[in-house]
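Form P-L/3: holo structure prediction, ligand pyridoxal-5'-phosphate.
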Amino acid sequence: MLEARPAVRTLPTYHPPLGGRDGLRLDFNENTVGCSPRVLARLRELTAEDLARYPEREPVEAIAASHLGVEPSELLLSNGVDEAIHLLCETFLESGDEVLIVVPTFAMYEISAAATGARVIAVPAGENFCFPISALLSRVTPRTRLIAVANPNNPTGAVAELADLLEIARRAPQAAILVDEAYFEFYGKTVLPAFRGLPNLFVARTFSKAYGMAGFRVGTLLGDAAQMTMVRRVSSPYNVNAIALACLPIALADDGYIQQYVAQVREGRTQLEDEFRNCGIPFWPSEANFVLARIGPLKPAFVDGMRARGILVRDRSRDYGCEGCVRITIGTAEHTSRLLAALREVLEEIGATEARAQ
Ligand SMILES: Cc1ncc(COP(=O)(O)O)c(C=O)c1O
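OUTPUT (holo model):
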């Protein structure tokens, strides 16, 4: 019988609960109203001829590079950050190498790294999910070849100090340091300019979150030009499709759309955090477009109650340290009003507020 490689046979599986997502989808950290109307207009203009051609990534990379203030040689467009993670792993990891991640975190670091046969070492986050800089540095060895950190982190919304991330890059020059800034727009702080002095530092950004383009599958990996040449070798020349490439420049040009969306999310985040505080529900302050809260043993009833009101939230109970936790995405002001109204009703209905008061 044909057998997959041992590293693949033992891989953890990642099955996001994609089925039956009708309703207000606050479960995947997507933009709740989608991309800019200008992007949709561009989409409608595409012709059969546009789609008959193999996609040309380079001209759009030049536009994205100028938008982000880097050289085209320092940027690769990818099929989402998911693919950027995969390409980094394929470029730098061999069987037996060590990879450090901080848990809980985004699942794809472990999956892409473990698929190469590398050994993934999970360093638990500190109290209140704070970034465990000392514990992480203490696990660095000469075999460490990748350290992946989401900043802000998913599912906690917590952030690492930028100085700590740069310190890791300095202390582990033999390793690729991936700072995944998928939620950058909601946070506003970045390590991006630092890669010029740190050739082992890579930054990933996505157009799936603030830009509302998760279905297009487009993201970007940035880093030292010589290192990016190596990553580019591993990439298929047509990894980003023609539809995404046609629309990305329009999305980048419509800054106003992103700004007004992000402003609504930030406002909604404060409102949701205030609501949890008032109800006595523990939560973790977030710098992303979602908030993680610990509902506790009533969590299944909470998730069901929200679903019954047409609102999907994500059960994160299986993540390290997240027993009884749900992650709720924040969207527009209108969606936040709907969320807060449903939340109050459900917490009351399942007796969560009384349970806390006792
Ligand atoms: C930290 C983080 N990185 C990457 C991704 C995936 O991004 P993309 O849609 O660009 O593959 C996610 C999606 O949830 C995420 O939370």
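COMMENT: Residues 36 and 257 are 6 Å apart (CA to CA).
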